[in-house]
Amino acid sequence: MWDRDRHRRRRWAVVIAVVFALPGASGAQAAGLHPQLLTRAGYGTEPIGFARTVDGRLHVAYETNTSWGNAASGIAEQAISPSGHPGPAVQALAWGGPNAGSPNGVPGLAVLPSGVLQAVFGGSPSGVEGPWGISSSDGGATWSAPVNVGSGIMPFADSNLTLQVSQGTPVLTAGCCGNVVVQRGFGPGAPTAQVTTAADGAAGNTASALDAKTGAVVASWDSNAGSGGIWLQQIAPTIGAAQKAPIPSQFGTGEPLILAGRDSGPGVFGAYAADAGPTTHVRLLRYGGGSVAVGSVKGLRAPVVGVATGPDGRIWVMWAGQVNGTGVTAVTRSNRAVTRFEPIQTHRATWSSLFTLSGDGRLGPLDMLMSAVSAPKSGPFVNGIYYARVLPRLSATVSAKKVATGKYKLTAKVTDAGDAASGATVAAKGQSKTTNSKGATSITLAGSGGDHVNVAVTKPGYAELTLRVSL
User: Are 145 and 133 in contact (CB under 8 A)?
Assistant: First the structure.
């Protein structure tokens, strides 16, 4: 059987391998991103499996693989603390031994209603096709032996899997052998369906996300149907309507459409490059509900785009490409209604190849995961999964008014992507006040007309904002 996902993975590793320069980006005020290598990995374009447990830790599952080839040595899990510090890798499944499993494809990971961490993967130990599963009831410290969780209806031997939990039921999505297969539940007889048709020709590069409000799981995949493109479809608890993403043909296939669902309020979203010009304008698509403009960075052409779930219904959007030969990653976060976005942050990149951007922002900051190949100043390139934490950014307006001789009143309004930001501290010349529920506060300062005052706006979990105000 021909695994279209793995074939594409190796092809794109060559096609998009362009070394990014290290100097600052012209046209974008870029800071260093400082990503950390979580693990070497031999795959590229498939979404990374991750899940956040109730203790705030973000767990990442991956094939243990140190080459560009397809041979895997097992499955490992690694947890990132709520403060953004990666812990040691735990070998959840080791290659070899009776029924030890032969993982094949990117594993999916989710938290079951009981709190158990559940990983699923393709493979065929002892010649039995899966999907297979391993679980941990102690937060990833130890893992069970592999169990065949397949329905017995369709094979998952050579699959990249995603895993969500809808209304208490595990939902697996597999891009296997040119088809997209969905299984709802574990074990013999679990409802299983193929959502692609003969018209797709071949399909793969699957992703999925949960709408926490409705319990719906939406999957995405790229297809060869017609002129090709990327499709979205609800796959649980029932099969919904298929929707083609309005992505330009230049970016229409070869990469997954990363999805993220809201935890507060309904909606599953995927971001995409709306054009292929010298400056890419990014839009955020909602399954079944149109799209909204996210923004652009002058000169940044972005073939790689991703999304992540944020707090209070917010959605993070990230995209990456080059500005005048320098790699740049852009990041922004929406308001609660997902109609507006905070100021775009830009960060210099050091990749020779960047395949996917994804992550989780439920704690406030974005825990960003990148499947990439580094471009070091010296030594060999390292293909793997990288991690970086990005803080959200506030906006503020500050006005000054003379209220008495030598006295000026600064009035500040602080917002988070347009939403009022209460509890923010506004400080200037040794004076500070905290914003109210409307995001407003004021400070009275001594000064003279024409003076310039630096105003610092801070809030825990946010990047500091500094403004210069004239009296």
Answer: no
| Cis, bond preceding 237 (omega within 30 deg of 0) | yes
Torsion, CA 89, CA 109, CA 161, CA 149, rounded to 10:
110
425 or 70: whose pLDDT is higher?
425
Pairing of strands 86-94, 282-286: unpaired
Tokens 């990653």 found at: 329
- Model confidence over 27-44: pLDDT tens digits? 334 455 788 999 887 656
pLDDT at residue 80, rounded to an integer: 97
Is it the case that residue 9 has pLDDT exceeding 50? no
Which tens digit of pLDDT belongs to each residue from 39-61? 887 656 678 999 999 999 999 99
Handedness of CA 416, 417, 419, 420 (dihedral sign): positive
Tokens coding 332: 């922004």
Strand arrangement, sheet containing 282-286: 260-261, 268-273, 282-286, 291-295
Q: How far is 358 from 62, CA to CA, in rounded Å?
A: 14
- Asked if residue 258 lies in contact with residue 47, where contact means CB atoms within 8 angstroms, the answer is yes
Distance CA 408, CA 5 (A): 63
CA distance 259 to 268: 7
Give per-residue pLDDT as tens, 367-384. Answer: 999 998 887 776 677 888
Q: Are 104 and 120 in contact (CB under 8 A)?
A: no
Asked if the peptide bond before residue 131 counts as cis, ω within 30 degrees of 0, the response is: yes
